[in-house]
Amino acid sequence: MTTAPISNIRNFSIVAHIDHGKSTLADRLIQMTGGLSDREMAGKEQVLDSMDIERERGITIKAQTVRLAYRAKDGKDYVFNLMDTPGHVDFAYEVSRSLAACEGSLLVVDASQGVEAQTLANVYQALDNNHEIVPVLNKVDLPAAEPEKVKQQIEDVIGIDASDAVMISAKTGLGIPDVLEAIVTRLPPPKGDRDATLKALLVDSWYDVYLGVVVLIRVVDGVMKKGSRVRMMGTGAAYDVERVGFFTPKMQQVDELGPGEIGFITAAIKEVADTRVGDTITDDRKPVTEMLPGFKPAIPVVFCGLFPVDADDFETLRAAMGKLRLNDASFSFEMETSAALGFGFRCGFLGLLHLEIIQERLSREFDLNLIATAPSVIYKMKLNDGSEIEIHNPVDMPDVVKIAEIEEPWIEATIMTPDEYLGSVLKLCQDRRGSQKELTYVGSRAMVKYDLPLNEVVFDFYDRLKSVSKGYASFDYHLTDYKPADLVKMQILVNAEPVDALSMLVHRTRAEGRGRAMVEKMKELIPPHMFQIPIQAAIGGKVIARETVRALRKDVTAKCYGGDITRKRKLLEKQKEGKKKMRQFGKVDIPQEAFIAALKVDS
């Protein structure tokens, strides 16, 4: 495949809400342009979703790129660089990177479901990158499809003209040639100067066992040649380029990549940490002066502790996390210890789905059995001496008398829901201390904007939202700011010993309910011992909820038949003394399952 003139290159990404058919459309485009033969496609849906977990859940996690060759109706040969992006809110940073490398987007909307919250979020991101947008209505062959109504919806909600939206069914292949023509005629070619100094954007990087770090780049100006020496402007490191190429989705090597092209390079880079996403790559001998704008770094918002069930697995866990970190720059971790759970790591994630995916990959790819503590967010604490600290583990919270004010992060959530579930969705948001900002209608669907504390959202908000709306509501959020809050640290005491893995920061008004739910759950989970065990939820020195696990009783009077009552009484008194002593020195074994189940407690 030779280098095409820049006017015949089209770089585009596919954006959509989860399950609207992005990856399936990508499959059809690859098939129609001959990127893979029918034999290679056979029996394999969503070619670009390479991880097992992506296929099983039917979601895209990593943005993937493919180069396709297409001969248009005007007889010219075009080169398409296609980016398939994730639709889930937790992976929005993957979307932003893909969009920065492209000039246009295909906006895929399900013709039966219409515009969803994530559709909006991704389209606004594309518009921020000055993208030309081509609306594509997918699943028009379904009996429930209402293309005219959805076109109107796109115009009302997003404000882009959808009168000439392309009608397709990605599953059956209907309308795919029209999409290819629309890419040629309606999306702009990239701009760039072949004779200028090399300037390329580092879009993504991952670790390959054989090649070292593979770097995905978008060349802006100049030419990326095999054998040239390049410099990463962010880190200042210089490397000799060993391979240059692109994906079709198989790796193809070429001698050079010109302006406007998207491809990969390898250059004996050992660590993914050496390649900062959003960095500018330039010629080592005559570097450019200005860097490209790059991306906003991915900031973790949800934190939780991960501990191996078997303490011997700690080193395996450390190695596994190091490997995952190689391919996922947004995942961060540091070591921590807990009295109840032993050695483990405090990890930062972009959201709950990200947490779940990482946990599943650790257990599946590295065969680890893990316990995760309750998810928490970053709190800012202003102390009386004027200093400010950030904590994301309730165990690290300083003494209450030293704290002047605690601030918690707030988000703005956009929720779209069919009208009949609006009441229960609003009630859910009110229960989570939310304040309503606006409520508008798009056809028969309501769009609500709410300010919510992130603390309430990370717990189980998404699951509750799906259950109160029978799965029809969609949800998107972004962090807004920090606001002061009346938060308290709630501890769970078992036999008067605090269990650090179960302590959490909660709002004062909700502490009692959360505490009662926790102790009731723990009562069911802790097996009876030879002595009674009190389980308490406490704030400071004040107990707000209590349950007791009854003691096992041995019938010590079984062998006394007849005779004086004082004999029985003496034995019972002796048992009582023993139980008292036991309770003083006895150790309560809390089974691992109890932790896992208690952390899943539903408020």
Automatic annotation (TrEMBL):
Residues 7-191 form the Tr-type G domain. It is a peripheral membrane protein. SUPFAM superfamilies: EF-G C-terminal domain-like, P-loop containing nucleoside triphosphate hydrolases. It holds the Pfam family EFG_C. It is an enzyme of class 3 (hydrolase). InterPro entries: EF-4, EFG_III/V, EFG_V-like, EFTu-like_2, G_TR_CS, LepA_C_sf, LepA_CTD, LepA_IV. Keywords: Cell membrane, GTP-binding, Hydrolase, Membrane, Nucleotide-binding, Protein biosynthesis. It catalyses: GTP + H2O = GDP + phosphate + H(+). It is found in: Cell membrane. The keyword DNA damage does not apply. GO terms for molecular function: GTP binding; GTPase activity; guanosine tetraphosphate binding; ribosome binding; translation elongation factor activity. Its main location: membrane. GTP binds at D19, H20, G21, K22, S23, T24, N138, K139, V140, D141. One of its GO terms (cellular component) is plasma membrane. It comes from the Bacteria. PROSITE patterns: G_TR_1, G_TR_2. Required for accurate and efficient protein synthesis under certain stress conditions. May act as a fidelity factor of the translation reaction, by catalyzing a one-codon backward translocation of tRNAs on improperly translocated ribosomes. Back-translocation proceeds from a post-translocation (POST) complex to a pre-translocation (PRE) complex, thus giving elongation factor G a second chance to translocate the tRNAs correctly. Binds to ribosomes in a GTP-dependent manner. HAMAP family: LepA. Belongs to the TRAFAC class translation factor GTPase superfamily. Classic translation factor GTPase family. LepA subfamily. This is Elongation factor 4. It comes from Bradyrhizobium stylosanthis.
